[in-house]
Amino acid sequence: MEEILRTNDPTALSFAQALLRGEEIDCFVLDVHMSALEGSIGILPRRMMVAREDAFLARSILTDNGLEVTRKA
């Protein structure tokens, strides 16, 4: 699995999920339930993960639609 997006914005996460699912790329979001630790103020980013073989295409799709993606180190 590879991280392709890290954000605090729930709208951006939903948009990214819709884009990737529309292209039949499986993705999931980590750290969704961290709001219990942060007090629901939204300071901890959520991370979107995809399979390593889908990462290049997923980053291209998100970038083409105006989202800033996490680059591979």
Structural write-up:
This is DUF2007 domain-containing protein. Residues 1-64 form the DUF2007 domain. Pfam families: DUF2007. It comes from Pontivivens insulae. With 73 residues, the chain is of the alpha+beta class. The chain has one domain (2-64): UreE, C-terminal domain (Alpha-Beta Plaits). Helices cover 37% and strands 21% of the residues. The two termini are 14 Å apart. The mean pLDDT is 88.
Q: What structural class is derived from the secondary structure elements?
A: alpha+beta
Largest sheet: 3 strands, antiparallel
Counting DSSP H or I runs of 4 or more residues, the number of helices is 3
How are strands sequenced across the largest beta sheet? 1-3-2
Mean pLDDT: 88
Please bin the fraction of helical residues: 25-40%
Indicate the multimeric state. Answer: single chain
CATH topology: Alpha-Beta Plaits
Q: Per CATH, which architecture? A: 2-Layer Sandwich
Give the count of structural domains. 1
**Which range does the strand content fall in?**
15-25%
Using only C-alpha atoms, the radius of gyration works out to 12 Å
Order of helices and strands: EHEHEH
CATH C-level category: Alpha Beta
What's the CATH superfamily, by name? Answer: UreE, C-terminal domain
Number of strands: 3
Uncertain stretches: none
Pfam families: DUF2007 (PF09413)
Protein name: DUF2007 domain-containing protein
Domain DUF2007: 1-64
